[in-house]
Amino acid sequence: MSTILKVDNLNMLYTSGNRQLSVLQGINMIIEEGETVAITGPSGSGKTTLMGLCAALDNPTSGEITLFGNLINPLSEDERAVMRNKYVGFIFQNFQLLPSLTALENVMLPLELQGIKDAEKEAALLLERVGLKDRMTHYPSQLSEENNSA
Ligand SMILES: Nc1ncnc2c1ncn2[C@@H]1O[C@H](COP(=O)(O)OP(=O)(O)OP(=O)(O)O)[C@@H](O)[C@H]1O
Ligand SMILES: [Mg+2]
Question: What is the CATH number of domain 3-87?
């Protein structure tokens, strides 16, 4: 079994104006291949902050994050974007789909950025796997009731 994610002594301090908020203090965590992990806690306890740091979306105040053996702290913004494209799938509470692209185009986009030749075929197969075969040309606003009312 190999290690997917390793978090070492992670600290996150938000500064807004002259106020500082320490959200994560000394977090250590290892997630192995094949594991399913739920991070639970009260609202405001730092779950989204932790997820954002683990997904290389944000930089911690201190501590180390290793994703698939790659230490992400020293990477540039562009290098972190490559890591995210290659290794991370992230479903935000509000999805963050591009509203002007169809479901198929939304799924194709990261594949095209990776330089995958058959991006359209690959995206179609992925959508089929999650039961969206007949709705590939739908826009995000047409895909779920929840999204429609947002
Ligand atoms: N960019 C930011 N700047 C300043 N403070 C922030 C920022 N993002 C989050 N916070 C604060 O950090 C704390 C942790 O927020 P976070 O969103 O990580 O919590 P959460 O556990 O995901 O909460 P919820 O269950 O409501 O989603 C909160 O007090 C929040 O107000
Ligand atoms: Mg949250």
Answer: 3.40.50.300
